Amino acid sequence: MTAVAASALVGCGGESGASGPVPKRLVSGPGFSFAAPEGLELARTPRSVTVLPADERSQELASVTIFRLVKPYRPALWPKASRELDKVARELVDSLGGEFAEEPETVRVGGLRGRRYEIEYEREEKKLRQRLTLLLSRRTEYQLLCRWEAKDDLPQACVNLEASFKVSL
Question: Which of 108, 120, 150, 169 is spaced 20 to 30 A from 96 at the CA atom?
């Protein structure tokens, strides 16, 4: 159902300002948009947009990637679809050598129902946390992915991503 494993090493970023709200800009991708903190760099592909700090050493980033579903999703399919999403997330956790940091949960983001997974794993001797939110709509799966160092709080870019994500027609 999803190509999560293919893009699993992408994730979230940004810093919240100590002196107040972080200025935001609207970021658009193929069929979606979201707000990202100013000052982050953008990387685009035909199916995704990633925002990341200019510091190449940073582990933080946030991205949205779209995948075409083989069969159209309908709300009546949710029980089966959620089990499939959980299976794919478990395979991702195993491939990263990580573990679920929190219990998977059903969420609504941008008016769409989906599943959210918090994963912890190590890469290059750093403990990382990754939030993966998979949303379904008709023939499209939206993969919202954030990553940051596990010792840090949830980055502002991740907060912005889920709070502002919208599907555009």
Answer: 108
Q: Residue 86: count other Cβ atoms within 10 Å of its Cβ.
A: 14
* pTM to 2 decimal places: 0.84
Nearest Cα residue to 110 out of 84, 82, 134, 146: 134
On average, the pLDDT of the chain sits at: 87
Beta strands in the chain (DSSP E): 24-29, 32-37, 41-45, 48-52, 61-68, 99-100, 105-109, 112-123, 126-137, 140-149, 166-167
Angstrom CA distances, 88 to 66, 110, 164, stand at 16, 22, 25
Backbone angles phi, psi at 121, to 5 degrees: -160, 170
* Alpha carbons 126 and 76: distance in angstroms, whole number: 41
143 burial (CB, 10 Å; 0-12 / 13-18 / 19+) is buried
pLDDT at position 92 is: 95
Place of tokens 């893009």: 7
Mean pLDDT of 106-112: 96
Domains detected in the chain: 4-167 (3.40.1000.10)
